[in-house]
Structure formats: structure tokens, C-alpha cells
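TA notes. Do not distribute before section.
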Amino acid sequence: MPADPVAKWEEFLRSRYWDDILKLADSYPDERSLKIQFSDLEKFDPDFAEELMENPDETIEAARTAILELDLPMDVYLDRAHVRIVELPRNFKTRELRSDHIGKLLAIDGLVRTATEVRPKIVSAAFQCQRCGFTFFKEQTGNKFEDQNLKCMNQACDRGGPFKLLLAQSKFVDAQKIRVQESPEDLRGGQQPQTLDVELEDDLAGRIFPGDRVIVNGVLKSYQRTNPQQGKSTYFDLFHKGVSVEMKDQEFEEIDISAEDEEAIMEMSRDPEIYEKIKDSIAPSIYGYDDVKEALGLQLVSGFEKHLPDGARIRGDIHILLVGDPGIAKSQLLRYMVKLSPRGIYTSGKSSTSAGLTATAVKDELGDGRWTIEAGALVLADKGIAAIDEMDKMNNEDKSALHEAMEQQTISVAKAGVMATLKSRCSLLAAANPKLGRFDKYEPIAPQINLTPALMSRFDLIFVLTDDPDTKRDSAIAEHILKSNYAGELSTQKPWNPEISQEDIDNALTVIEPAIDPEMLRKYVAYARKNVFPTLTEEAKEFFLNYYVGLRTQGQDSNKPVPVTARQLEALIRLGEASARLRLSREVTGVDAQRVVRILEACLRKVGVDPETGFLDADIIASGTTKSTRDRTKSVMDIIKEVSRENQGPAPREDVLNRAEELGIERSKAEEIIDRMRRDGDVFEPRPGMLKLP
């Protein structure tokens, strides 16, 4: 350390940060932090910058003293000002921390898993001697309150107590603890994310929330483990004393795009085959599913969030649901998308609770027994992709927790007096199986999906994937699987078999080689999301308008269902924006509109068609029943009313079924309707074979 670190700081602050100090003095005490770039200090004096890294406590204290000694042109005393060192040369992961790092200034990179409430912490305790009345102060530097072995500071007294703590004269600061977890994208397969507790004080407290991506610059500290039975342990635990916090708002900013990369990206965007190439780069080891892969490519870039003048918000993220028979690679598609997204979280519905997916309030040692907010998968996937496999296996209560997260893209927690709203601005990619394991092709598709209509209607695209035998397609799939496995076998055997050349492996790998390298595709998507915000052209607007109004017109006849709702129109706009983004265009053209209408219609024709009438029916997804079923249900209810009135009591079931047949309703369908009405409580049987409306 230099002979006079305070003088060194004064020289540095006057030469490099004088304007910033004047701004701080002008807005003090509302603003109390002076941010100093580490690189500026390093340019000023490399040795002094190194000293800051090695002995941060003393060096930062010298900086605070230097600020107090500066001769400012205004009458202000910056006694509560803080020096915040930012942009340290290296970011550490929690698993990289070692004993050599204790006491050093380090930057820890990760995401906030848990955050406590902000509470006052005493830093200077005022004690009054009960014998002589003298008041003195004791600095509280650690986490344990120091009130033992005190002596009165009055030399005439010099007694050991008793002392009274004077809260009114003691000095407090706001304090908060957060738990920072390693980012999922930084982990290799099978690694469990490690965590580090961080203490934040004064104006740093209360600004960090679960799910935030942060770089915490601070001093690594340790404390000794204790056990009530065994006493003090030889092992120590680590925690981080926060000096400054840098927010990492945009997850795609984590991807470095060089000038060469940008040139390559612009070249790719001009390729007329760019859509085909992106489609072929998504899970190339899985054969077929062109429409699904095209939609997944659109989901990667998505539309963009819009804030309207009246405060309303329109989401830009695209939600996709894959429902299909077992063994058709749904889970593999999900895992590939999570790997492709810079911020992806994969979870299985069977083992996921609403708290694990959204957020919850928990009571743990981090908050010293208080309630703290813990972020779930959808919060951790903020600005990325959250993949939920086996969604149909989730409990209904857990599924209902997704409603707010999908549409408003926020998660509200109200538990044990803790109320918080967290951000979950992610695209949801979900997979589910039909209720009975496989689809029954003789029954409507929608009722076979074990998801509530309210949840299904929030998906922009629902793909139904059936495993129907087809000789030509089955041969192509089998050939693709065999070639993929052969390529894997050659790669595995190469180290032990000198006869296998790299050329043999390369030739075998061509079948599963993506058209665009995954790393380059990630950069392409990052560039599109950061820089491209397309607007609808008149041509695209007209195409969407004509398509939407044209379909709605079909539903004007009272005997016909409502084909689409405004939700599908919003989905089309999102998909259109994504289509333009994929070729880095500033405009959504008529071609984009046609492309996304084709994809949406392919989904609607599978899941949104009433099999009896052949008409598109939005209510299949929105309410789970078709218009024709609703009409039949109303007819059966009218029959029960009429027969009950004639009999002046409950209606015989047989009479109701006979009259339904006279109206052209099949007996089996009428029985289904009566059974469903009984389950829903719309009709009951006061005695066997007799029906009565409530």
C-alpha cells in the first residue's frame, strides 16, 4: 500500500472523477454511491489498483476518508457516501472460490435465487453507563452484536457496566441478504449449481430481486461453523460482503458478437434459404417435423414486448405446446431448444410444483428465520426459454399457477406477509401426452389433452403429433436413426480403432450436421433480438385483417361456431414479427404474414376443428367443448325441463333419451351428455333412473 493511500485517492478522484463527485454532492443524500471503473484506477496507478484487489477493506475505507477530506464548492458533508468499484477484470463462479481468495475483492457472476426483506442493521451502538451516565459508542463490525466485556469510556468511572443500549442515538443502515446461484447456462451436464450468500448494505439493499442476473463485486469473507453438540468446527463457510452490484438486464448481451460475427450474420440474413437453414439446424438428429421446427425457430427470436400509452403491455414471447403419442422425440426437441437458448431451464411436470415453477416464500437461515422469496424455474428463465416436459402429469393447482406467468409474464407471491411481483418474461415450450397415452383418431383431439382450456388458450401454437404407421415415412425415420447411431459409433470407437479416419466420421456425420453451427445460430438469434424490431407493413396488416375477419364472418350464422378469437390474431402478429426478425428485416411483409398463417392454420386444423361439422371452432380450445356439443347439451336440458313439467316431478331417464333420439341426437351421445351434466352438478338423480335439474 502507498505511504498515504488517502492522498492517492484524493489525487485520483480530483483528476478522473471530480464531475461525478460534484453530481453526487448535488443529489446527496438521495444518491450516496460513487461508481468507479476499475479500469480507470488501473490506468491511473496499476500498483494501487492491485492493492485494492488484495486489501480491499483498508483501501476502500481510505477512499471514503478521501471523499470527506475533499474541498467541495458546496456546503455538504458526504459522511454516508460509498465508493462502488465496478467492472472488475475477472468474474468468478462460486465453484472457483478457494481459501486464497478470502479477504480479496472479487466479482461473483450468477443469478439471485433468494432475497430477504430489507431490515435495519446496527453499525454503531450507543451505550450509556448506568453508574455514571456517560454515553459512548461501540462499532459493530461483524454479524454478532458486541456488548460483552465493555468498559465505560469515562476515565473517572472505568467500570464494567451495567450498560443500556440507546437505540435513538445508535447508527443503523438498511441491510439485505441475497443468495446468488451459478447461472444454469454456465454448468456442464450433471453439475449442481452452487450458491453463495451475499450481504448488501445501505443503498444497495432493496434493489435486487429473485431471478435477477447480477455481478456482485465484493470482499470474500468467512465464518466458522458451529454445532450445538460439537461446538466450533475446523470448517469455515464463505459469504460475500457486497461493495457494488451490476445488473445484467439482457440475457442476449452475454453473447459477445465480434465485427467478423456481425459480418457473417448479415451475410446469412441475405440468404434466401435462411428459414430452411434455421429449421434444419434445430435438432438435426430428429427426422421430420418441419412445421414444428419452423415454429421453434420463430420462438427463438419471438416478437417483442410493447408498452402502450395507457400503461397496457402486450407480450412478445411465443408459447408453444407439443402434444403427441409417446416415443416421437418431444422431450429431445425440448432439451435441444434449452441447449440452444442462452438462458434455458428444463423441468419435468411430474416432479414440478407450483412453487418450483413460479416462486414461493420460504423460511430459512438466510433470512435468520424470516420469510424470504425463492424464485422458481419460470423466473430463472426470464428472457429465455422455459421447457416443461410431461405437462399433463402436473396437478391442476400447479397448472393454474402458470396462467399469470404465461399472459402477464409476472409472478405474484403473497404469503406470510411477504408480497412480491417477480418477472417471468420467457417463452414457454411445453410437451404433453394424450389422456389415454395415445390419441384415439375416432374422437375429437382437444378433449383428449389433459390440460384445462384456460391454460391451452394461452399457447400461441398447439402442435398435435401422432404416430401413425406410414411405410414411406417410417423407412425414412428408420434410415435416419440408423445413420445417426452409426455416426455416434464411429466417433466413440475412433480413439481405439486406428482404421477409422476423421474423413469416415465426417461423412457419417453429414446426416445429423446442422446447417448452421449452434454457436453461430445463438449469435444470429442474439443479434436479431437485440437489434431488430420490425413493424407491420400495410400489406401484412391487410392480409391479417382479411384472414381474421374472413374466418370470423363464418361464425356470424347463429348455427355456426366462432372460428377464431382476438387471441389468435395477437398470436399471428407475434409470429409475423418473429418471421421478419429471422431474416433481420425491419418490416413484416405479406410473405411473412402468409408464412405464419400457414403455420397457425396447420395447428388449428388439427386441434381446433369440430369433427362433426368440419368447421373451425375456437371454443374447443377456449372452453373445451364444441358448439355442436353445447347445442346438444342445451337441447337435452330443455327436454329434461319439458318432461319434468309434464310429469310434475323428476323426468324418467328413458323418456329423456327417447325424446333426444326424436330430435336427431344419437342415444349414446345423449347418455354421454347426461353423465357429464351429473358430474358437473347441472343435473342430479333423486332416485335411480329419474333426472332433476337443480
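Switch to the second chain here.
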Amino acid sequence: MKRTTIYFDPDLEAELKAEVRRSRRPMAELIREAVREYLARATAASPPGVGGFASGRSDGADRAEEILAETGFGARR
């Protein structure tokens, strides 16, 4: 493993130390676990752009075929 330095604000450090005492696990182990969980969630998230645009309508899924026809998506040229 590679050693690194992390800076915590006092409140976060106090919470982390309390969890170390409660769980009886080393601080480094808790930090590694938290980073792994964060990265797993981040990589499992939707691709960039998904859900990032608002059409102002809430019936997009119900109107999918109509919307695709309007845009010409899938039409042969």
C-alpha cells in the first residue's frame, strides 16, 4: 500500500475518531472502506448527460415513439 496524507476539518476528524472507537477498527481501514464505497457508487452512476436536461414535460417515456418519429431518429435516408 502507498502512504498518503489527508487533511480533515476538526468536526470530521472528531466524527471519524468516534467511529474508530465505536467500531474498534483502524482509522486507515475506515477511510479505505469509505473511499471504495464512494468510488463504487460514482462508477455505477448514470453516464454523463443522462437526466441532465429538462424538456419541461413529464411524459417523455409515454411519448417515446412519437418523439423519435418527430426527430426522424431511425428513419432511413
